[in-house]
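Can you give me the bound-state structure? Components:
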Amino acid sequence: MNNTKWWQPAVIYQIYPRSFQDSDGDGIGDLRGIINRLDYLEHLGITAIWLSPVYKSPNDDNGYDISDYQDIMSEFGTMEDMEELIERARLRNIRIIMDLVVNHTSDEHPWFIEARKGKDNPYRNYYIWRDPVNGGVPNSLRSTFSGSAWEFDEASGQYYLHLFSRRQPDLNWENSKVRQEVWDMMNFWLDKGVGGFRMDVIDLVGKIPDKEITGNGPKLHEYLQDMNRETFGKHDVLTVGETWGATPEVAKLYSDPDRNELSMVFQFEHIGLDQQDGGEKWDLKPLDVRELKQVLAKWQTELGNAGWNSLFWNNHDLPRIVSRWGDDKQYRVQSAKMFAILLHLMKGTPYIYQGEEIGMTNYPIQEISEAQDIETINMYQERIAEGYAKEDIIYSINVKGRDNARTPVQWDHSPNGGFTTGEPWLHVNPNYKEINVEANLKDPDSVFHCYRKLIELRKNNPIVVWGDFELVTRVPDQVFMYFRRYEGETWLVTANFSREPITLELPETGQAGEFIIGNYTRDDVDFKQLQLQPYEAFAVKLA
Ligand code: TEU
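Here's the bound-state model for the whole set.
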């Protein structure tokens, strides 16, 4: 393919710096820690790192509340460290993708400090202010982190909008000065040689608060086309938008190359499948594998050539997939590999979230005092006030809470899993003695080696990058099976989503050829009588 972009055959690794590797014993991960682990990431084989925010921040939302876009959080290091990371990664052909958080700033950003000085301040219009309505909030917009999205400012008698924490005031994108500030800041980072941007809640920047429109506002795509032209369009970078409400139709608007917006978006349709209709993420229902198959297959086929998928199970906001939809006890290793094989042989760019590649699990809490995450803590307080039972809230937190993904990376069996010599900012999962990088590296059958092999398969087989996808529908509900086809070659990928063995009869599939990868040792693949073990997954070429 002539028009291949570097990010199409790529695999991206997400680092949540606070929890990755501490180098100075303060209990908080840092840039030096990442630099020290580049060998490991190169060994895994990844193409780029998506770095969650490292900018200056008071950490109300762990760096997603930025007080200076052109400076580094002091706990993480200095701008020199950042430049060193970019350069040392580049020497290994690893690019650094920055997190672009421009829906909002911190309330400690100088723009907001100025803005709240009064209605006449030149920065006032950088944010969204409204007069009270009937002595109360302007309207019923809610914050993702519970409560009203409007916060009253005593001094001026007006409310400001915050779709997240009250310490994350929303920027006013209708103000062209704000957009220019964002472009300038992006160019500052592009000039430093970054490999692109992951764009935090980018679908919100076209909001019309007065009409209670937040996602997919009318000017959203115009803004993104401007952004592309004014900033990264001149560079060979990856841009991925975080777009919670995207459908395939909407995703094409962002990622159709002819429209000059983004490389791809994160879609979250599969992520909502264990959430009750009309409820919040905390209102749980069991996963129906049939729905998962239908949703992922739809995304695989509907983007066509006017878009590009990103593939992920995990990020810093989501529970660990092996605990969520797999079995993190008896079949932890098998189910972790099953999710890897199933996703990494699909079409799109896969994202691995730190620790996923060694099969890290959720870590349940007993008391809310053990939680660190603002979303979790605010929701707990709100639901307690509304009369929910404490046990039920804690249960939901253990299933869905964001701290699950944020416990420190488990490097070895030394105290704190080798993450820090100090007191870790968030509890280390006590299973670190068994589940850690060192043990994974030693064991050729580990989850790590499965991920490593999958990354290599993608690099060496165009069918993984470009092949057409077809879901196999004549299989039991718990079996996820698909074909990839490219230039006369066909691969079949299959996964058993249950703890029970399943026998399949698929004589029409023909003869199996070369075995590509699997999470069990098998002698052969016989489609007339195919016995799948609990959580078994494999890929095989058709003869
Ligand atoms: O997340 C957007 C977002 O909507 C999340 O808060 C999400 O709804 C929730 O966590 C699902 O569990 C992005 C970042 O990924 C998140 O870490 C930030 O807290 C948020 O934006 C605000 O910047």
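A couple of observations. The pocket of 1-O-alpha-D-glucopyranosyl-D-fructose is lined by residues 61, 64, 101, 144, 164, 200-201, 242, 244, 281, 316-317, 375, 402 (CB under 6 Å). The chain has three domains: 12-107+172-452, 110-161, 466-542.
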